[in-house]
Amino acid sequence: MNISHRIDNLKKLLAWIEKNEKEIKKALLLDFQKSEFETQTSEISVVKTELKHFIKNTKAWAKPERVPTPPALFGHTSTIHYEPKGAVLIISPWNYPFQLAINPLIPALAAGNTVVIKPSELTENTSRLIHQMVNEVFSPDEVICELGGKEKTEELLTYDFDHVFFTGSTPVGRIIAEACAKKLIPYTLELGGKSPTIIDETADIEDAAEKVYWGKFLNRGQTCVAPDYILIHRSKKDQFIEAFKNLEKANAETPTGFVNSSHQNRVAKLSGNGDNYRETRCELIDSPDLNSDIMKQEIFGPVAPVIAFDHLDEIYKIMALNPYPLALYIFSNSQKNIQDILNKTQSGGVAINNVIVHLANHNLPFGGIRTSGIGTYHGHHGFLEFSHKRAVIEQKFLSKTMRFVFPPYTDFKKKLMEKI
Ligand code: NAD
User: Fold this and answer.
1) Is the CB of 326 under 6 A from ligand 1?
2) What's the start-to-end Cα distance of the chain, in Å?
3) Same structural domain for residues 176 and 126?
4) Which residues pair with 229 in a beta bridge?
5) Which of 125, 179, 272, 323 would be 30's cystine partner, CB 3.0–4.6 Å?
């Protein structure tokens, strides 16, 4: 697919989204009462920004890149060609059902691939709208949308795709990786996990409470990078809990709902709230048992355990129970503490004195580590993820120099090669 055609496709996609913003908001409202404000910011604007970034940069990114050639290969030129991988399968989850289906589609198209999208079966209205969009914007030999659940994904995984891009839970990620391994298909896994938030004794507690509250309120905590559990210095815990409760009282607005009753019941059970859970917007669970389910499972809902610590060393033991989080949040004004935490932990990404925003900068790679994901995307990182980097070397002149490595291997040739 030539570059100008790829860019035209991205422009057509942008125009369709701009024309259908109302329809997108309506679909998400029907699917899980997602507020128009959140749909605008976290589904539509995010995708439009990414599209504009790709429309501007695809031409430059797709150009073959000249790289230096070592002296031993004098006479050659070396180039990396960014080629399409081929046919790409994108499997997306329900929690940001529009954004997480379209944001991988953008780099996949920019890199010149053909695409099959399989959106979530749990958000029927949005998935049907994506299906309609794909039919209206693209020709079927470029992009198609397949609707269905687990069985549809299983069927799609029997085909010979050239790359599979999956966003969803870690257990399903394993199933995808196994299916790809059988055919040696490369894959990207954007998964979940328990993202810790560390608040030390030097942090601005009111600021931390406001940001953590937002991270839990947004999409009702059903965000892959939502702060999961909070590790806070004992001297600041009461102040933090008080500030959090005040925010809860001040935000009477009804937030986004749960996608279905089984997700709601799962969160209710984790928090020990039973059927009353429907009423709760955001809630802290003070000092849960480290062996309880809420400290073992990704919460993916508006509750957060809070655990006090006296010394930083204690937090590393707690974090080791759930290694490889997708995100890590640090609230601190001590560079020494920040460095200590960065040096002693691993995570897909980090935000310091904020939450979630690391994914809003398309110059940063977005992805997990081990159980929270394999591979990255966003901006140029996404273009590279969907491209095959083909090494091309061409002998332009001094063709005869290569004879020095051909047999017979004389002493003279040996000495010459050692010198080179
Ligand atoms: P999920 O894993 O249940 O489903 C994701 C997709 O996989 C859906 O399209 C679904 O139809 C398909 N699927 C489900 N079960 C399958 C099976 N057995 N075989 C084949 N395909 C199957 O995830 P979800 O509940 O839709 O989304 C929530 C999860 O996604 C959370 O763990 C969250 O952290 C994660 N997530 C990660 C990111 C990220 O960018 N890293 C973003 C959003 C969500």
Assistant:
1) yes
2) 42
3) yes
4) 196
5) 125
List 224, 248, 282, 385, catalytic entry: 224
Q: Which domain range does residue 119 map to?
A: 3-191+371-392
| 180: annotated active-site residue | no
Q: Which residues contact 58 (CB under 8 A, 6 or more apart)?
A: 3, 6, 7, 10, 110, 383
Q: Are both 295 and 160 inside the same structural domain?
A: no
DSSP 51-79: HHHHHHHHHHHHS-EEE---GGGTTEEEE
Same domain, 173 and 212: no
- Cα of 399 vs centre of ligand 1, distance in Å, is 54
CATH of the domain at 165: 3.40.605.10
Q: Which residue's CA is minimally distant from atom 15 of ligand 1?
A: 150
Going from the Cα of 105 to the center of ligand 1, the distance in angstroms, rounded, reads: 17
Both 205 and 290 in one domain: the answer is yes
* b/e code 327-343 from CB counts within 10 Å (16+ = b): bbbbbbeeeebbebbee
415 is a domain residue: no
Domain membership flag for residue 92: yes
Arithmetic mean of pLDDT over the chain:
95
Structural domain count of the chain = 2
Helix, strand or coil, per DSSP, at residue 198: strand
- Residue 244 and residue 297: Cα distance in Å, rounded? 23
pLDDT in tens, 61-119: 999 999 999 988 889 999 999 999 999 999 999 999 999 999 999 999 999 999 999 99
Best substitution site from 167, 170, 296, 370 to test ligand 1's pocket, by max atoms within 8 Å of Cβ?
A: 167
Q: Given the residues 38, 43, 190, 298, select the one marked as catalytic.
A: 190
Q: Is the peptide bond before 107 cis (omega within 30 degrees of 0)?
A: no
Active site residue 18: no
For residue 200, how far is the Cα from the chain centroid? 27
Indicate whether 277 pLDDT > 70. Answer: no
